[in-house]
Structure formats: structure tokens, C-alpha cells
């Protein structure tokens, strides 16, 4: 019998053909928006994108409006690479702007897919930046193509712009209210037309989006760390299914889609978000420390010291150390000036990349029994290399502790994960994984311990990658 699980596996296979993915739950995208006439919006947006750079390193872009026209600049690479020279956007007397950093979870990697996307249609111009993934994006694209639409990119975001252009109304708010109910999946959007900035979050609130204020002007961002960087004050999270419209009239909020339940991605707390960000009132760094404390209670180990894998696991390692009463040391150093290993052209080069990026401190670990805390194991290949590095550096025992449960299912909501068959947690039991990666012992955090550490109700969190139970 052909089951829904079989269908998902087929989707995985088709989605990841010809790609080379890493051994982490790779980042989602980052979006930013600001309505502030008379301010230097290009520079403010650039600084905000620097703060969101961890969410996507493939491409970056900024669109600004002067009230009559929208101007766009984008390119491949980091924010510092795309905007390292003079930009014509600096001379635009902008009233509003949006920015985007991209990690390709939907659509191929290439300059045509860099965002924001800018279209010109019968009702003017429209720019859009998107974080998330539409699970019915392929179906909608095929429907539009059959009706004569021509696509320039392979992104879900362009599908949305075509829907607005084809089925929308004269004003942007009415168009979005009419079109968005047809979208199924996870999304945080920022839209920009000539005179309005619009922010929208999907009815389940899978991907984060927050509202802030800067010198009396409103700003939107995927994470609150962007507000801190530009000197803005956080107001609140955008609610699931909510649309906020910011213009010269001020700010207007409306619940355009019913939201019976929230399903915020729990991996934002575990790995994706920056430690200084706050999501739903919870500081990411403090949540990660609590994950580490709970991990120590559930999976203790007899050892001499505790260390973490930079950077996302350092807080959990500190919490583990405090709870178990062992010294915390920087047993592994990260080289911050190397590119990301998963994009290298061959597995051999990627292996070398891991060794260049992370290096154990031999004098600290030699002859010691050590606890190594990491946030997750996806394929298991990086974990195997890390354990081997510590043993080569002279560690007597390596006890690997993971501040989340085993990853058993891919994400379809905007985080880049491997297929079912590539997920070591889907294929193997904990004892088998431990043997495969070569650790002395291996311990995962329980589902209950993870949820309790976050401090939000189980029903308000998406845990599909750990449970296989998809909320959408």
C-alpha cells in the first residue's frame, strides 16, 4: 500500500537530487522591513542584515521605495560581499525598505533566486522577501503555468507574486487577504509596494517574525537581534495568521487567517536563532543553557571536563557543566574565517573543510575523559569526525551528549534537512549510532526534557523533525 510516508520519501528524493547538503539542520532565511521616511534606510537595512547573516549566507538583497518607485540591489554572497562598495540605493530618498539573506531551502541556488523579488504589474510595483517553505508550492506553480504564467525563478516567493498579480485586487491589503489562504506551509513575509510595508506570518507561526520600533518608526525582522543591532526596541511577536500594514497613516493590524494553534519551530531555540534573540518572550541563550542542564540530569557521564561544539552548542555545554559540577573548557576552537563546508564540490574536500573549521585543544583534552555537547546529529558524518578529532588529540574517553532528541524526519517548512534515508536517527538506534560515530557513550535529551526546557506548551511547538508528526 502506498502510504503518506512513502509520498514524503519520494518528495525528499526528488527535492534533493543533485545537491550536496551538510550535517546540520541548515539555516532558514532572514527577512527585515522598515518604514521610516527621512532615515538612511539603506544603511539601517544593511546593518540589520548583518545581524541576520547566520540565517542565510548564499545571497543578500535590499529593496527600497521613495514613494513612487522601488529600487533593488541583490547578489550572491554574504552581506559584506554584496554591499561592500558604493550602492545607488544610498542616494534614494527612501520611505520604506526590505532586506533578505537567503539559504536555499526551496529552489535552486543561483542569482535569479536571490531576494527580495521585485515585480511590476498592473497595480504598480511589489517587492517580497520570504522565510519559510510552501508545501503546495509545486502544485500552485503548475496551476499558474497551465494558465500561462512564465516564471523566472524556482522559488515559492515568485509563486506568491504571480497569485497576487493574477488574482489580486487594486490594493495590496485586499490582494493578500484574498491570496494567502491558498498558501499551505510555513512563511513569514515582508512585502513592499510604493508606499506600504506589510508583514505576515502563517496561521501556525512556524517561522518567527517580530515587530519593533526605531525612533518612532516601525520595523520587522525574523529575529530581535536585528533590532538590537540598529538600536530599535522590540514590541512583540507578530501573531500566527496576523498581517501588519505600516504606512504614513501608522500601523494597522488584522487577523487575516484564523489560527487555532501555534506551531513555532522548536529548532529555532535549539540551533537556528542567534543566542541574543528573544522568541515568544524566551531568550535563546537561556533556553539552550536549560537544555544543557536537563541533558545533564538525564544523561550524566563520569568525566574530567565538559566542552561544546562552537557555536550553537556552547550555551548547552555551559548548562551541562553547571548542573553536573564539572569544569567547562573551550576544548574545541572554531576558525571563523572559513566558508561553509557543505558547499564544497567533493566529499574529500568537505572532510578537509571540517578539520580546518574546527580544531581540538590538545593540551586540554589529552589524557582526559571528556563530555562533548552538541545540539543535534543529522547524518552523523560530522559527529564521527569530531569524535575522531578528540581521540586523535589524546582524549581518553569521549562521551557525546546531544541537547535534543534524535532527528528522525525531514523538515518541509523552511529548514534544509536531508532525506529520510540520510537521517541516521531514522535508520539506527542510539546504540548503533554510538558505535558508528565511535563515541565512548552517546546520550540524547528526551522529548519531554526538550519541551520543558523551552518553557512553552508542547502543543504550541512544531517538533516534526523529532516526532514525524507534521502540524500542516
Task: Describe the model.
Residues 1-21 and 340-346 have low confidence and may be disordered. The chain has 17 helices and 23 strands. It has a seven-stranded antiparallel β-sheet with strand order 3-2-4-1-10-9-11. With 472 residues, it is an alpha+beta fold. It folds into two domains: 21-260, Glutamine Phosphoribosylpyrophosphate, subunit 1, domain 1, CATH 3.60.20.10; 286-467, Rossmann fold (3-Layer(aba) Sandwich).
List keywords for this structure.
single chain; alpha+beta; Glutamine Phosphoribosylpyrophosphate, subunit 1, domain 1; Rossmann fold; 2 domains; seven-stranded antiparallel β-sheet; 23 strands; 31% helix; 25% strand; disordered N terminus
Assign a percent range to the helix content.
Answer: 25-40%
Q: Rough shape?
A: elongated
The name of the CATH architecture of the largest domain is 4-Layer Sandwich
Arrangement of strands in the largest sheet: 3-2-4-1-10-9-11
Class from secondary-structure proportions: alpha+beta
Radius of gyration, whole Å: 22 Å
Topology-level CATH name of the largest domain: Glutamine Phosphoribosylpyrophosphate, subunit 1, domain 1
Query: Strand share of the residues?
Result: 15-25%
Q: Provide mean pLDDT, rounded.
A: 90
Uncertain stretches: 1-21, 340-346
Per CATH, the superfamily of the largest domain is: Aminohydrolase, N-terminal nucleophile (Ntn) domain
Main beta-sheet annotation: 7 strands, antiparallel
Oligomer: single chain
Tally of distinct domains: 2
CATH class of the largest domain: Alpha Beta
**Number of helices, where a helix is a run of at least 4 consecutive DSSP H or I residues:** 17
Cα distance spanning the termini:
23 Å
Record field, number of beta strands = 23
